[in-house]
């Protein structure tokens, strides 16, 4: 599958956040999106998914324009920075939304201190995130949009999560953004830089340096 985004424009009032953003992504590749805080990365993911509308957006799947919001196609999953599940959910109830059990979760992340029956509200931020990441990689969607997935994860669980992304990438379009730039660079097959409202494809680290971005 190919997902193409063309000529995105987004403004809030008089502030132009995104202008002339274009990206091309496909299954078999993990696409990284980097940029400074406030550059519009989270807004771009929400706009692609369809949670917010821009002043201009052309979205194509396999070169066919998508007229309705991407979420309405049933093909995409967005993991936002905010939590997916209510805090009173138990771990098992959250996993059950994606037809998974606690044993399935432990098979993937065996070193976690999470216990069966615990409510999400008593977990640490990283533990709660781990539950949501497990759901994301088992959601059986063709397009996966991940906003700050490494936030709060231990190095070991980050590595296990990366292994899961590589497991599903052959059949999934994956777009990931995170402030931990070195993790994104190591993980991604291609990278885009979002800067001053525009996107640019990063071919090598010198491209980032030329844009004044520390690497």
From TrEMBL:
Transmembrane segments: none
Source species, domain of life: Bacteria
Pfam families: ABC_tran
A GO MF label: ATP hydrolysis activity
Gene3D superfamilies noted in UniProt: P-loop containing nucleotide triphosphate hydrolases
InterPro entries: AAA+_ATPase, ABC_transporter-like_ATP-bd, P-loop_NTPase
ABC transporter domain location: 3-214
UniProtKB keywords: ATP-binding, Nucleotide-binding
Full protein name: ABC transporter domain-containing protein
Species in which this protein is naturally found: Sediminicola luteus
């Amino acid at each position: 599958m190919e997902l193409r985004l063309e000529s995105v424009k987004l403004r809030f009032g008089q502030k132009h956040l995104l202008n002339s953003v274009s990206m091309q992504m496909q299954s078999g590749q993990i696409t990284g999106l980097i940029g400074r805080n406030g550059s519009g990365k989270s807004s771009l993911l929400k706009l692609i998914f369809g949670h917010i509308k821009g002043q201009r957006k052309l979205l194509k799947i396999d070169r066919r324009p998508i007229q309705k919001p991407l979420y309405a196609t049933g093909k995409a999953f967005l993991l936002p920075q905010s939590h997916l599940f209510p805090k009173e959910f138990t771990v098992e109830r959250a996993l059950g939304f994606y037809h998974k059990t606690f044993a399935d979760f432990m098979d993937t992340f065996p070193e976690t201190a999470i216990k069966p029956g615990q409510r999400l509200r008593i977990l640490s931020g990283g533990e709660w995130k781990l539950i949501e990441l497990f759901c994301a990689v088992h959601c059986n969607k063709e397009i996966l949009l991940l906003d700050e997935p490494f936030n709060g994860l231990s190095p070991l669980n980050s590595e296990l999560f990366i292994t899961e992304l590589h497991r599903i990438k052959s059949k999934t379009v994956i777009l990931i953004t995170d402030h931990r730039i070195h993790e994104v660079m190591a993980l991604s097959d291609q990278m885009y830089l979002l800067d001053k409202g525009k996107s640019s494809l990063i071919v090598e680290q010198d491209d980032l340096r030329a844009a004044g971005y520390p690497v």
